[in-house]
Amino acid sequence: MGCNRNILTNINGIPYLQTTNTTVGTTSVDLALGSYRLPLPPVGYFTVRITDAIPAGTTATLPVTLTRNGTTRALTLFDGTPVTVAELIGGTGVFTVFNDAENGILQLTSRTVV
How far is C-alpha 46 from the chain's CA centre? Predict the structure, then answer.
């Protein structure tokens, strides 16, 4: 018989992180989530609040990265393609991300454009 693993996510609630800086570069747009003492769960969801909008006129095809505690990772869609500025442009707001550090997944799970 196989071994079934029961993976629990967010046992202590869903972390809520706010952007502390948005940096538009030539190869990506980075949303900095600041430095936090407590680590994110290795597997689970977290919420991101964009407090400073991606500037209007930013190239819509630039991929989006998230930086937290000095680590930068690419934000992806369901099929693994990078999230681009086109998915997040339009001001400030909140979106949900699924993080699986062991498998390298950082995936946008909430719809951000109409």
Answer: 8
Placement of tokens 């500025």 in the chain: 85
**Tokens 């454009």 appear where?**
113
HEC sequence for 62-111: CEEEEEECCEEEECECCCCCECEHHHHCCCCEEEEEEEEHHHCEEEECCC
Q: Which two tokens stand for residue 22?
A: 């948005």
38's CB contacts (< 8 A; 6+ apart) are: none
Taking only the tens place, the pLDDT of each residue in 37-87 is 777 878 999 999 999 899 989 999 999 999 998 889 999 999 999 999 999
